[in-house]
Specification:
With about 350 residues, the chain is an alpha/beta fold. It has 2 domains: about 150 residues, 3-Layer(aba) Sandwich (Rossmann fold); about 190 residues, Up-down Bundle (Dehydroquinate synthase-like, alpha domain). The protein contains 16 helices and 10 strands. A 6-stranded parallel β-sheet has the order 1-8-5-4-2-3, with helices on both faces. The chain has a two-stranded antiparallel ribbon with strand order 6-7. Strands 9-10 form a two-stranded parallel sheet. The longest helix is centred in the middle third of the chain and has 21 residues. The relative contact order is 0.11. It binds zinc ion (ZN). Zinc ion binds next to helix 11. One of its GO terms (biological process) is phospholipid biosynthetic process. It comes from Thermospira aquatica. InterPro entries: G1PDH (IPR032837), Glycerol_DH (IPR016205). Its cofactor is Zn(2+).
Length: about 350
Amino acid sequence: MEISVPSLVRIKPKALYKIGKYLRDEDHRRVVLLWGEGIAELLKPIVEVSLLSAEIEVLFETTVTDTEVESIFHMAVELPSQVEAIVAIGGGKAIDIGKYLAFLKRLPLFSVPTAVSNDGFCSPMASLTVRGKKTSFRVELPQAVIVDTEVLQKAPVRFLYSGMGDLFCKITSVYDWKLAYRKVREPVNDFAANMARSAADTFLYYDDKSLENPDFLRVIATSLMMSGIAMEVARSSRPASGSEHLISHAYDRLSEKPNLHGLQVGVASYAVSLLQEKTEPLIRKAIEESGFLAFMQEHPLSLRTFEEAVKLAPQMKENYYTILSEKGSVEKLLELIRENTILRSMVAED
Ligand SMILES: [Zn+2]
């Protein structure tokens, strides 16, 4: 089994200023630029100077607005044949499209997230739309991951809290994976499970969890990257996605206005930790110390949708054993949503 991981990783302040140099280091001189919405307005001057000084030629560039798979096919057909690399700069959409375009064209991808709200910027899955329906596609990992921590700091804080949620939840997802081994003999790749858990632990045991601390942002971004790579090692989303993700997927389906993935997953992770019991003190520590809890108390999820999502969650994925597959667990969690004061404070009546 061959695992190809990113060979160039720069997660630091002002990394964006060197993007031209990084492309040149990897011997890419002709590139395609994909911008997330509103991102070119903010960052184009920096990127342009950097590319120019490294003599990198941009053969095609566009701002991506939708993740419809058809538009990516069109883009793939139109792409000039001399292109040597795809550079995706933006949030989730631009990077998902970059991943799939790189996959279709067998080209390396430079993943340049401007916010780290989930582990998608370096994962082997691209979330795209097929005739209006969200679908996951298997793709390759990016060749390079470039995260400018100064850019992260300028993004709205909800993105960072969302990134934290998609990170500490690996504690409950790895628990579920091991439970699936005990209950239905689903094989566990121990290395991948350890990688995901260790990514969450790095965050959990980091002392100064302040958003003003650029080193903390580096830890969040690096750990999310590790979680994405754990999925590649496992050849499945298991290390990064357990019952908390099923609840979030159900919430996405039920809600007219879903929240950010990592915010939903983070709340759901605390919820399922109450069933898993031994993970609860860890998740509680994570949400209390990082400010995630306080943020969600100010911006709660919908109580009704959350309850419906808990009911729907076990049916979200076939043959996917989690704590919610245990007899009576859904009913127990529905009671806990009303009784547990911490959980109840992160969901509110509409
Ligand atoms: Zn996730």
